[in-house]
Design goal:
- The structure is a homodimer.
- Chain A is an alpha/beta fold.
- Chain A has helices at residues 6-24, 32-39, 43-50, 65-77, 91-97, 135-141, 156-165, 192-204; strands at 29-30, 57-58, 62-64, 82-87, 107-114, 123-124, 127-131, 146-149, 170-173, 186-189.
- The first copy, chain A, has two domains: 6-77, Orthogonal Bundle (Arc Repressor Mutant, subunit A); 82-194, 3-Layer(aba) Sandwich (Rossmann fold), CATH 3.40.50.720.
- Chain A has a seven-stranded mixed sheet with strand order 6-7-5-4-8-9-10. Chain A has a three-stranded antiparallel sheet with strand order 1-3-2.
- In chain A, strand 8 (146-149), helix 7 and strand 9 form a beta-alpha-beta unit.
- At the A-B interface, helix 1, helix 2, helix 5, strand 10 and helix 8 of A face helix 1, helix 2, helix 5, strand 10 and helix 8 of B.
- The structure holds a DNA duplex.
DNA sequence: TTTCAATCGTTCCAAATTTCACAATTGAAA
DNA sequence: TTTCAATTGTGAAATTTGGAACGATTGAAA
């Protein structure tokens, strides 16, 4: 299948999260209109996103929650599991380690790395903290795909370089700074302050 | 000036953050190409974003860092300061309270609210934790603009309702769930897991 | 059985966004 | 002084995204 734009992928993941929620409430049928009400998106957009996969809805009825979820997951994740590692086990790192995200079965944080001797060997939410030097070895052994940066921004580029060296192909950067990496490595930046201010600008006018 | 689309606003905030960094390194001139290298965006896009404001660059020379930063800030923030409150002072809430974002002078977290008796009265990073019931009063007194949701998702909608009731016009939701609010209230969702998985999908193909 | 209302899937069009191409400007070097 | 290379700013083309319209399908009700 053709590669989908990031925007659609992100929305589809939101649908999957929403479908998980509906399943917990034992709602086994759902229409694009209902999904639209929950997510705040338009029903047409949702149908169009879904139609990128295969015909799975039935007119007049809607979608079977279970089937739709499975269809979206199959196309997007293809039975693969995401193995994450995190650099930095401070306040933010610990919070991410304990983040109760959806889709536990597909996403697993497999190791944390920290420079502080005092933290090495400790566990947070079932994940062991290792010295940074062991990152290349552990990343290879655990087949980690993506690394999270949760270190102070002064260390950000240095850690990013080390992540690339260790063989990671994706980086989610929570530090409020830009990093420079080879083109083959994908980066997502999560700067809280930029989000706050951008919302602020929106509501000002 | 005409209201800019959110995408441009977000990028301009990134430029401001970048310019702050350059100033710290005493770099007083910068070209769109250099900004492009740092941020990973294209130089044309950067010039076009900047041209929404006023002519501030000089051909062959580039932009004066200080002037460009001031211009962007003036148009976007207009000397206003952002007052934030946060609901939930658990792991994630504490991490946000300690987040070392840029632009400290314009962004201030003024109060935290938590349901746990044990936390009331404590301070985190200079911010006092209050009982949730005092939110409406404190939000009005401190002129808070935006509220952050950092509570478990089971409490998410309930807290969102309370935030709207308290007079907030913007919500940044860190819980992995959707919330329903009146149209006048703007919401930004920050679901870490969706970010991780969306990056994962990108690097898979 | 026929009609009807709800809903999906899709085509076409409009709007937003990005990229391209290039004229205009400017300091530096010949 | 003249030329040149670097850089800005911008109009137009290209691409992407979102929305409107609508035919097709389907179970329910008359």
């Amino acid at each position: 299948m053709k590669k989908l734009p990031r925007k659609i992928i992100t929305r589809v993941l939101l649908y999957i999260r929403t479908l998980e929620g509906l399943l917990k409430e034992k709602r086994y049928l759902v229409s694009s209109k209902q999904l639209a009400d929950i997510t705040g998106l338009s029903d047409v957009k949702i149908r169009k996103d879904i139609s990128n996969f295969k015909k799975v809805g039935r007119p007049r009825i809607g979608y079977k929650t279970v089937d739709l979820k499975r269809t979206l997951e199959n196309y997007l994740l293809q039975n693969n599991k995401l193995h994450l590692v995190i650099f930095g086990a401070g306040n933010l790192g610990s919070a991410i380690l304990k983040y109760p995200g959806f889709h536990r079965s597909k996403v697993k944080l497999v190791a944390a790395f920290d420079a502080s001797k005092a933290k090495i060997g400790k566990m947070i939410n079932g994940v062991r903290i290792y010295p940074v030097e062991r990152a290349p070895e552990i990343i290879k052994r655990r087949h980690a795909d993506i690394g999270i940066i949760a270190v102070p921004k002064e260390r950000c580029q240095e850690v990013a370089d080390y992540m690339v060296l260790s063989g990671l192909h994706g980086i989610v950067n929570f530090a409020p700074c830009s990093i420079s990496v080879p083109a083959k490595v994908q980066v997502r930046n999560m700067d809280f302050t930029i989000e706050f201010l951008s919302l602020f600008c929106d509501i000002q006018k």
